[in-house]
């Protein structure tokens, strides 16, 4: 580790002002950033901790959606949306381990946009809206590639609004050491159609499987996916699995998610 300063603003406005300083970086739960600092993969001179900003924490319901503050931990999501959005709560309850779930935040996960993280799949499949200190961004416009989002410098995720589907489920095949998704599939059925989001598989990060969406919108059953597959081109290959293996898993896990939903 190296020396750096830490500031702990009490409001979003103060955090935005602090992030305007040279080489400042926001710190959510620190579950990705702190290991990056240890490895010198990131070297900000100032960390702006968002942990003391109460206005970006908590869960509320409004207009058929559940709105989750960007500073809300995974553990809190697992507890507080269990009745309103069970599939989202179940997903949150299986992220990492208890230490990660009690420190990591919704906003931190979405801002980082790790290609194997769970929340990007939930947001994209739900058609969520990412709310920042300056604007609202549709999930379809927010994710722009591996570790890349529509966020601008100094922009903070203050909340995420998840429309509640009629049916939904998330299934992931875990990398056992990290509990990140080797492949994860989130399926959400709404009155006007089905959305299917895949994480952990693509070199470009989370994506929608539109062919499966079309089939499931006509017939929401696992059998509707028979004969469909995702091309292996563009999928990741690493020591945990080849692109072809990940392509196979996408089909298997999507069927399981539909059956569970």
From TrEMBL:
SMART domains from the UniProt entry: CO_deh_flav_C
PROSITE patterns, per the entry: FAD_PCMH (PS51387)
InterPro entries, sorted: CO_DH_flav_C, CO_DH_flav_C_dom_sf, Diverse_Substr_Oxidored, FAD-bd_PCMH, FAD-bd_PCMH-like_sf, FAD-bd_PCMH_sub1, FAD-bd_PCMH_sub2, Mopterin_DH_FAD-bd
GO MF assignments: FAD binding; oxidoreductase activity
Keywords: FAD, Flavoprotein, Oxidoreductase
Domain named FAD-binding PCMH-type: residues: 1-167
Entries under PANTHER family matching the protein: XANTHINE DEHYDROGENASE SUBUNIT C-RELATED
Listed name of the protein: Carbon-monoxide dehydrogenase medium subunit
UniProt source species: Alloyangia pacifica
């Amino acid at each position: 580790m190296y020396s750096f300063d830490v500031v702990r603003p009490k409001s979003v406005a103060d955090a935005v002002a602090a992030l305007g300083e040279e080489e400042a970086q926001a710190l959510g739960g620190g579950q990705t950033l702190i290991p990056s600092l240890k490895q010198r993969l990131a070297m900000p001179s100032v960390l702006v901790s968002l942990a003391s900003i109460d206005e970006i924490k908590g869960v509320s319901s409004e207009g058929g959606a559940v709105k989750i503050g960007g500073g809300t931990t995974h553990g809190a999501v697992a507890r507080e949306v269990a009745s309103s959005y069970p599939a989202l709560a179940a997903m949150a309850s299986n992220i990492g381990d208890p230490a990660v779930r009690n420190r990591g935040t919704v906003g931190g996960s979405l801002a980082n946009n790790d290609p194997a993280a769970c929340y990007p799949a939930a947001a994209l499949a739900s058609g969520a809206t990412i709310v920042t200190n300056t604007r609202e961004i549709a999930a379809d416009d927010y994710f722009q590639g591996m570790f890349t989002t529509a966020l601008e410098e100094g922009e903070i995720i203050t909340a995420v609004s998840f429309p509640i589907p009629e049916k939904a489920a998330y299934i992931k095949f875990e990398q056992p050491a990290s509990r990140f998704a080797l492949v994860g599939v989130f399926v959400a059925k709404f009155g006007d159609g089905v959305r299917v989001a895949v994480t952990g598989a693509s070199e470009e990060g989370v994506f929608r499987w539109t062919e499966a969406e079309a089939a499931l919108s006509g017939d929401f059953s696992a059998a509707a996916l028979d004969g469909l597959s995702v091309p292996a081109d563009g999928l990741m290959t690493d020591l945990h699995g080849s692109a072809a293996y990940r392509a196979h898993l996408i089909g298997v896990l999507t069927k399981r998610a539909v059956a569970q939903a």
